[in-house]
Please model this.
Amino acid sequence: MIKKQFLGFCVLLLSSSFILAQNEVTGTVSDTSGPLPGASVVVKGTSKGTTTDFDGNYSISLSSGDAILVFSYIGYSDQEIPVNNQNTINVTLEESARALDEVVVTALGFTVDRKTLGATYSKINADDARQSGETGVINSLAGKASGVKISRANGDPGAGSSIQIRGANTIGGNTQPLIVVDGIAFSNENANGIGNAATGGVSQQSRLNDINQDDIESMTILKGASAAAVWGSQAANGVIVITTKKGRNKDKIDVSYNAIISFDEISDRHPLQTNYGQGTGGNWGQNNSRSWGDRISDRAGGNDEFNTSGQYFEAQDGSLYYPITAKNSQRTFVNENFDQVFRTGNSINHSISVSGAGEKGNIYLSFGKLDNKGIIKSSFYDKINASLNATYRFNDWLSIKGKANYINIKSNRIQQSSNVNGLYLGLLRSAPDVDNRDYIGTYFNSGGTPTPLRQRSYRNTYGSKTNSAYNNPGWTVNELKNLNNVDRYLLNLETTFKPTDWLSVIARGGVDNYIDFRSSFFPMFSSGSTPSGGQYYTENRDLKNLTFDFIGRSNFDLTEDLNLSLTLGYGHNNKKRNSIYAEAKGFIFNTRLKDFETLATEANRIALNSKSFFKSDRFFGVAAFNYKDVFLNFSGAYETFSSASEGVFYPAADVSWNFSDSKVFEDSFLSSGKLRASFGQVGVAPQRHRFNTTFEGFTYEDYSDPIDITYFGGGFKLNDDLGNPNLKPEIKTEYELGTDLTFFNNRLGLNFTYYQNEIDDVLLDVTLSPSTGHNNQYRNAGKLENKGLEIDFNFKLLQNEEYNLSLFGNFNNNKSKVLDLAGTDVVSLVGGSITSAAIVGEPMSVLYGSRILRNSDGTPDLDANGFLQQDSEQGVIGDPNPDWRGGLGMSANYKKLNFNVLFETSQGNDYAERTRFILGNFGTHSDVGNTVSPSQDLVDVNGDIHPAGTPTRGNIADFGAGPVLLNEPWYRGRGGGFGSSPINELAIRDASWVRLRELSLGYTLNSEEFRKKTKLSSIDFTFTGRNLALWSDVVGVDPEINQSGVANGFGIDYFTNPTTKSFVFSIKLNY
Amino acid sequence: MKKINYIIVACSLIFSGCDYGELNENPNEPTQVPEILVITGTMLADIAINASHVQRISGMWSGQYKGEQNLYGALHGYEISTEESNSSWAYLYNGILAQNDVIQEGLSDDLLIVGISKIVEAHAVGSACSNWGSIPYSEAATAGIDDPIYDAQSNVFAQIQALLDEAISNLNGISGYTLPEDIFFGGDKTSWIQTAYTLKSRYYMLVKDYSSAYQAAQNGIASNEASMKYHPPGTTSGDQNLLYEFLSGSRAGDMSTDGTYLTGLLDGSPTSRNNTKTNEDARSEYYYFDTDGGNTVGVAAATAPMPLVTYEENLLTLAEAAARTSTFAAALGHLNELRGFLASGNAFVAVDGGDILQYDAYDAADFASGGIENVDGIDDTRALLREIVEERYVSGYGTFMPWNDARRLRASDTDISVPFPLNTGAATVYPERFLLSQNELNSNSNAPTGVTIFDKTEVNQ
Model:
């Protein structure tokens, strides 16, 4: 049916040839160095336009001789020239630091005049993004557009970041926007894979960061559904359209070299106490997991006394460690232990590009190399990019374009979060009076038998245990290896066919293929029951993404005033993913050789694999009507795909009224004004392969005691996930109303957008009653909504030849709400004692866990001793979504000096400080290192009385029934602890923050004399400070980081690796 | 128009259809397997229900184990959340009931397998019903029912008695064969029938139908070999004794037997049960584990068997039921049979060959006023019952028996129950049940709310 309809459209398209234009204007568009191919020429006030060819030439048919042509090119100031019945108009465009964002790139990769569009587009200039000095393109978007939330998983080099546009649009589907590079979808996967746990492992990379930032010409963020509807089920989270650079200078070879050097420091440190030693109950205890021991200042001083008659540990430098018989030393090692694993990180980024153009085509070649050493010793992220972008024109009606990229990433990641091999878990739980620096050596048992390469840690201070419980951070950093190597190849081919001058047909296809080879090596004596015997695993993730588009574009005048431009297309997508995982454990001997057969017997070697397949077909169309100053766009896509049981039509419409074109506003302070409204639908595809109820292998484990079917002859069970053959995509329906205004000769620009969306048929693993025999079913069951206001502004306070000063900023107050979960009260988005969850009636991703027992009036129901009690049922304990977010920046130029500053803020967001909370339990956090002297008798949570005047360890609090003493029993019980046993609500804090996101100072050297002497056209010097300051009530951690990385669930820290602040120097040479 | 013809040709070529065939079939997991491959999994689920987290908590709540720190520290102090029941519920309903539907449908003609599957189900459902009281059963794991109703506790017990009768009848009618998938008995139908009778007697005990319990136990487990136990291969994480695994990794030190009431009974402290005829030295050693973890000997060693339904239980059910419904002599005979078995050294592997193992037969005089088991001069039969109950408390270590007995006897027989203390001064009464699974509370509109662990279940009122 649909095929026929489309063919019908084709015929309509072809038969429209009778409507042809009248006058023709021709000319050349160039800049100071030569013609500009690909520049846009649009008839002002219409959607009618063309682009210049490879020689910068254009020709355009006009229905009237008094039209105004708008010439634009990204990075250049627009020019408007009245035709006045001229037949030839040549234009020279001037480069602009902050061009008027008059043209934008649509979801299909075509450049159009912004005023013709009724949907919301945020354009980000590549130079602005580059100025951030971020090594990854995603982070460079932070704070630059309203409604776009960027949050990094942590500060590890190469770590992924989450992009969220206008709140969460799905519960269990893909949470990240679609990335379209030069019209072709670009994978931005961030996957944990088979071997890595989301809540504790290493942080994974976001594949969008693979792109070489110096290749990017512009980025346009399509926030709303109407702009993105042609992408159907891939576009519910918005679309980021990236245009890459092309060769364009005809006279000479353009050579550009850019070097960026940065120095990175940890941005926040958890404060730790140094007053009390290892042990519990006020008594020192060697190898104890806690630091609730003796008061260090009460110790005798001098050296410890040892039992040297039996077992001991000899470190690599010959230092000896024995069981301690008397703890005399008052030394503490908090800073030494920190310095053992942290350093000043750095990165060096070189990139060079060569480009040019000729009569028949153009070419752009670039090479980039990044070497990034993280702040955690041994972590690194190295990247190589090579790109080729070439166009060749055979004749007037046929041209081809080819693009090839090769990307290689190599990195070493650091274990983190809820994971006994995690860096912070071992470091921050370490007793202050244990020196971690000797982490490896030889253990001699009481019989004198040596065991070399044994780990030593604060719970294993003389190496007597094979499993240290938690790793010494030195061991985590130096002995563990968590490498990955990505080889990524992209190849895009495009043919443009112009059979007549009113029709162009584009066929383009792309292959995006990458292999991410990951490996993790845990030598013998690492922590954990399996790693302590040695564990090595590799995972080979192979993704192939094939896309093919066939698009016809046409433009014609239906009547004198009514213009129609029509785009029809078909898109095919085929994704294949294959992961192969292999593991060796229980090493035969203590070797570092990474070879499966050497490491383990056959019984201890495991191979797993996981495959997935997906195909989709899309028929799409865009019809843009223009009547005088009103633009009306209709678009839609009909899409079928393999993971849904039926096809879906995604309609969209928007209208734009450029009311300022009316004569009423002539000579007023309003320079331009546009009202826009839009409606659109987009979707989220169901997860693949969820139609059937399968049988699965399994391990039963009720609190760390696994029993695995593999070891009992193998077998299966009917999956606890019930299959669902009736899956449909989630449908997001969005309405927008907005206005774009500029005042005072375009010096003040304001954009307001109000949006409201509802996502129906949200797919989620509905928690079934366990008593149904299945735990979950993936269903179209939920409903969400988001609404909010977006404001962007740009105010050029001062502007003249020598200097200018402008302020810019953005604001968004997205409010999300979960409307329906098909009877399930709670859907956990991430696991853990505090989960981030979807709960009906609450905003998405609220924090959920054990809470304070409260009376009906909301006051805490205190126990007989005046302490908070735990409610036996869990509940909502915080909302990590901000009330509003905003960015505020200033940009100033004085001659060739420029200065930029960008502040970003998030207000009213809660955060689960689980690291700090659990460190209370361990007695290492500075919160619990205090000694108080009660002025009255105080009870503790056990009801024990602590007499007035006697100094005791703890804090005094008043929960409402008078002062009480918070001491070890409190912090190790209700007030801090594992699982759901403590009152986890006490770990929640308001994490509103303001940060100095960027501060940069740049200078451009391009004087006439300089050019002559050096033959260079310019040199740019820039210094950037990134993340230099953070103001927040949260202590010790940047509340932007997230334990589970790029996920729908967020707002939780649990021994997650820290973020960085950076000082970045860049130099750019242009020849 | 030649150029346009190219486009038309291209158009028609690419629209080659959108039929995805089997592309969305799961390439990683089968949708069908031979049903025989499902059987072992139900047994693992049964182990996870009866010898894991919930059993450990029950042990902490009946003076058998001590929760030292972290989650177990809190659980020891009766601070528990509904989350702790999630795994056990999933293992019961998905791990056993849903799988049994597959097995009993696909292998309906194989009465050995059908019979075994019913006994495994009755074992798991019985434990769940005892722990949680009213639970879904008659409508559980039924396609199309999203909110199964809750059957009364007594009703569930009645249903599983009937299920066990069916299983016994299934098994009695066949000749039997070797079944390697059966990790408990290798398909030995006699052992399964005896296990079914012991389970019947267990559930009669729980509802205080002592004469039926006595009758069922007559046909119950008659030898140590017929005890249903988990015998862990013990080679790697995933096939080891569950206590060993729990105590060896990052949870090391979370639980021990240091200073528990049971340890006191056994290790010669003032509450010791040792007397001139009894020396618990060996059993005390066997039962002990400290906070160090990584045990190589005793009950928490990697290969130590984990009891589920045992010969000891059957003998002690005979003993208690006989004391209540038959004669003193019969009861004493059963008790002495158990003591003889303990004395044989076959009940457990002694930690050290030198450990003393003394269980001389008791005689009636020992229970007469002033006898070694009746120094406080109570009624002879009550004294005998008291000793039988205490023996159940000790022999039932590692199973739900001590916890079940404590709740059963608290209502009517406090004079003979084991007087282990409350774990925290903050509590005034003992826990009587577990909290319903949080997932069930979230999703099943029939799930009762507002129940605390201190509320007695129906049969223990």
Observations:
- The mean pLDDT of chain A is 90.
- Residues 2-15 of chain A form the longest helix (14 residues).
- Chain A touches chain B through 105 residues (CB under 8 Å).
